[in-house]
Structure formats: structure tokens, C-alpha cells
Amino acid sequence: MKQTGAGAAALGLAAAGITGKAQAARTYGISLAGWSLHRTIGEGDGKVPMLDMPKMSRQDFDIEAIELVNRMLASHTGSFGEQKSYLDTLAKNAADNKVKILLIMVDGEGSIGSKNEDQRKDAVKRHSKWIDIAEYLGCH
Question: Which are the contacts of 2, defined by CB distance < 8 A and separation ≥ 6?
């Protein structure tokens, strides 16, 4: 246990010392999935608001692209029009931090692969809002 703990501590210290160098040497783009921060980002309880994810991505991790999760957005309910102000703020925060919003993972909007035709149609209808939002935010 002592050797394992010492090894982990040394690895952690080494990683902390080279973080800046490793980030500066990176020659490829990566993105940060919102779900990887699902315990950190949210509303209330000392969590970081989703609107600050672009800033966190750039300033804390030097990552230039993010992937959103519909359920993590504060205004994940309501029509596109009802969400426009929130989406505008999110897009501005991303632009201000030179972060691209690549995609939105969609959860809880029904099964497009359902055997039931009515359920499939409902799922397509519910997902279409997120396609419009993704386009509005400049996702690919």
C-alpha cells in the first residue's frame, strides 16, 4: 500500500508539473463532453452553471470544443422560443471563450427505434426541437 500510494503521489505531482507543457504541445483538437462534468455542472447546490461550461472548458482545461447534454441545460423544457435567451447567452459565452459547441446528446425524448409507430413518431417530434437548437448553436 505504501509503494502504491507513493507511486500515485509521484505520478500526480509529475502530471501537475507537465500539465502546461502537455497542453501547449497538443497539436490536435479535443472536446469536453458535458456528461463528464455532470456532478460539477448544474443548477444550485454550489454547482457551476451550464452557461459557464465554455469558460471552464477553455480556462481550466484549455479545451476548445464542448458537447452538451440536453438534460443538463437549465432550460431543457419548453419551446425553442422559450429557450432563445438562454441559448443566446450560452452561444455568447462560447464565442467569448473561443469554444465551439459541437453537438447535443439527447436523452429522455423517446425511442426513435421503438417497434410502435406512434412512439417513433412522437420521439422524432420530440428530438426535432434539439436538431433546431443544435443548428442554432452552430453544431455540426
Answer: none
Q: What is the DSSP letter of 42?
A: S
CA dihedral 88, 89, 90, 94 (to 10 degrees): 100
pLDDT value at position 55?
96
Sheet arrangement for strand 100-105:
32-33, 65-69, 100-105
SS3 53: helix
Q: Find the largest Cα–Cα distance for the chain.
A: 60
Cβ pair 133, 103 in contact under 8 A: no
Q: Name the residue type at position 45.
A: D
pTM of the predicted protein model: 0.74
* 50 HSE (CA, 13 A, CB side): 26
Q: Could you read off the pLDDT of 104-128 as tens digits, one per residue?
A: 999 999 999 999 999 999 999 999 9
